[in-house]
């Protein structure tokens, strides 16, 4: 090999290996990001389902309280 070829190899190989390593790490990180994104989505759906159930339960309790008050008013009106 001539000196020119050796210099070209010395200059070209390290950046090429660095770029290749960066590409491999990018692919690995992309997969991890998708895993975390999926985990967050499933937990968000769970949180929204619990919030919906909680809101519904609060509405049921409030409705029962209002119905009880209404019955009290009706019974008092009948007594008069």
Give a description of the structure.
- The chain is an all-alpha fold and 80 residues long.
- Helices cover 96% and strands 0% of the residues.
- The longest helix is centred in the middle third of the chain and has 77 residues, at 3-79.
- The relative contact order is 0.04.
Strand-helix topology:
Blueprint: H1 3-79
Summarize the structure.
The protein has one helix spanning 3-79. With 80 residues, it is an all-alpha fold. The N and C termini lie far apart (116 Å).
Keywords:
rod-shaped, 96% helix, 80 residues, mainly alpha, single chain
User: How many whole angstroms does the radius of gyration measure?
Assistant: 34 Å
Q: Helix coverage percent of residues?
A: over 70%
Please work out how many helical segments DSSP would assign.
Answer: 1
Give the helices and strands as they follow along the chain.
H
């Amino acid at each position: 090999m001539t000196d020119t070829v050796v210099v070209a190899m010395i200059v070209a190989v390290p950046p090429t290996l660095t770029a290749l390593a960066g590409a491999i790490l990018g692919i690995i990180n992309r997969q991890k990001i998708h895993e975390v994104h999926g985990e967050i989505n499933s937990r968000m759906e769970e949180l929204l389902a619990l919030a919906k159930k909680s809101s519904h339960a609060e509405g049921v309790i409030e409705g029962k309280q209002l119905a009880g008050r209404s019955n009290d008013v009706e019974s008092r009106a009948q007594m008069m």
